[in-house]
Write a structure and sequence with these properties.
By secondary structure, the protein is an alpha/beta fold. Helix content is 37%, strand content 19%. The protein has helices at 13-29, 45-49, 61-64, 71-85, 99-105, 141-153, 166-169, 193-205, 217-226, 241-249, 260-267, 304-317, and strands spanning 3-8, 33-40, 53-59, 91-94, 111-115, 131-133, 177-181, 209-212, 233-235, 253-257, 272-276, 292-296. The protein has a 6-stranded parallel beta sheet, sandwiched between helices. A 6-stranded parallel beta sheet has the order 9-8-7-10-11-12, sandwiched between helices. Helix 1 runs parallel beside helix 11. It is globular and about 60 Å long. The termini are far apart.
Length: 320
C-alpha cells in the first residue's frame, strides 16, 4: 500500500542539501513511500532533483513576511491552507523543528512527527508533535537528519549518504575549471583577499580556469574585484540552482566559504574545500562521495597554506 509522507523542511539551501540522503533512506526502507516536500519557493528546485520526491509544495514565507497582511499575501496563505487541508498523510515529518515550520505542520492532516524538546533547535516546537523523537544535537547535520528519519520509520541506519543527484553526475565529463564561492550570507564569513589570490595562483598553475559564483550585485562586485586582471577567471552570471548544480558537477574542484553552494558541491561528489570562519564545521561539515575538507572554526579562519594543502589532496584524489 502507498504510504503518504509529507516532509516539512523549508530552508535554507545548505540544510536542504543535507536533507537529501534522508529522503534516499526513506525511499529505500519504506515500501510504497510517496514523498511530498513542503519547501520555500526559492529553493523548490532542490527537492525536485530527488527522484523519490513525488510532489514539491512551495511556501513563500520569506516573501510573505515582508507584507504579511497584504491582500495578495492573505490570498496566497489561504490557498496554501486549503491545499494542505485537502490532503491526508500517513506521516507528517517536521525535519526543521522551528516555530515557523510548526505553523505549517498545524495546517496538515496526518500523524505529526518531530524532535523532542531536548533535540529541537526551538524546544517549544516539540509540543505540537504527536510523536517526538530524540536525536543528539551535536553531530553532523546529514547524520542527524538520517537518524531522525530512521527513528520515525523504524529502520536501522546504514551505508554512506546518497544525495540522489545522479542526474547531474552520470555520464558527465569533468572539465578543467575550478568553481569558487567567495561570498556568504554574512560578512564575518569572508576570507582575506590575499589568501584568495594565493589559492587562485595555485589553481592557475594547475591549468585550471576560475569560475566564480555570486548571488547578488554586491557579491558580483566583490568577486569581480577579486579576479580583476586575471584572464583565466570569470564571474558567472546569476543562474538557477539547477544550472549551478550542472556547473558544479563538472568542476575539477570547488573552493568555497561555508555556504549552501559549497555543501551542494560536496553532495554532488566533487572534490570540495570548505572555508569556515564564523561557524563551526562540527554540525555542518562537508559530506559527499568525493574528497572534502572542512577547514577552520568559529573565530579561526584557515590559512592559505592549509587550504593549499587540502587542494593538493583534492586534486590527487581524482587520480587514484
Amino acid at each position: 500500500m502507498t504510504k503518504r509522507i509529507l516532509i516539512v523542511r523549508t530552508s535554507s539551501l545548505g540544510d536542504l542539501v543535507h536533507m537529501l540522503p534522508a529522503i534516499s533512506d526513506i525511499a529505500a526502507h519504506v515500501p510504497g513511500a510517496q514523498i511530498d516536500w513542503l519547501v520555500e519557493e526559492s529553493f523548490a528546485e532542490i527537492p525536485a532533483w530527488h527522484p523519490a520526491v513525488h510532489e514539491v509544495i512551495p511556501v513563500a514565507h520569506r516573501r510573505w513576511r515582508k507584507s504579511w497582511w497584504s491582500a495578495q499575501t492573505r490570498t496566497e496563505r489561504a490557498a496554501l491552507r486549503k491545499n494542505l487541508g485537502a490532503r491526508q498523510y500517513d506521516i507528517v515529518l517536521d525535519m526543521q523543528a522551528l516555530m515557523k515550520s510548526v505553523w505549517l505542520v498545524r495546517q496538515t492532516h496526518g500523524m505529526r512527527h518531530g524532535l523532542n524538546r531536548k533535540s529541537a533547535r526551538e524546544p517549544l516546537a516539540s509540543f505540537f508533535y504527536d510523536v517526538k523523537h530524540s536525536v543528539e544535537f551535536w553531530q553532523p547535520a546529514v547524520i542527524r537528519q538520517r537518524k531522525l528519519a530512521a527513528s520515525v520509520f523504524g529502520y536501522t541506519l546504514s551505508g554512506e549518504p546518497d544525495f540522489g543527484l545522479k542526474q547531474f553526475t552520470e555520464d558527465k565529463n569533468i572539465e578543467p575549471y575550478a568553481v569558487i564561492m567567495p561570498s556568504a550570507s554574512r560578512d564575518d564569513k569572508l576570507w582575506p583577499t590575499d589568501d584568495w589570490h594565493t589559492v587562485f595562483e595555485f589553481l592557475t598553475g594547475q591549468g585550471l580556469a576560475l569560475q566564480l559564483l555570486a548571488g547578488n550585485p554586491a557579491e558580483t562586485a566583490r568577486a569581480q574585484t577579486l579576479v580583476d586582471g586575471m584572464p583565466n577567471a570569470q564571474v558567472l552570471p546569476r543562474m538557477s540552482l539547477t544550472e549551478i548544480a550542472q556547473r558544479l558537477a563538472q568542476a575539477r574542484v570547488m573552493v568555497g566559504l561555508d555556504s549552501g553552494l559549497t555543501h551542494l558541491s560536496a553532495g554532488l561528489g566533487r572534490p570540495t574545500i570548505g572555508i569556515y570562519k564564523a561557524s563551526t564545521p562540527v554540525r555542518t561539515p562537508l559530506q559527499g562521495s568525493g574528497y572534502t575538507a572542512s577547514l577552520g572554526e568559529r573565530g579561526h579562519a584557515p590559512s592559505a597554506q592549509t587550504v593549499l594543502s587540502a587542494l593538493r589532496q583534492a586534486l590527487a584524489s581524482e587520480l587514484v
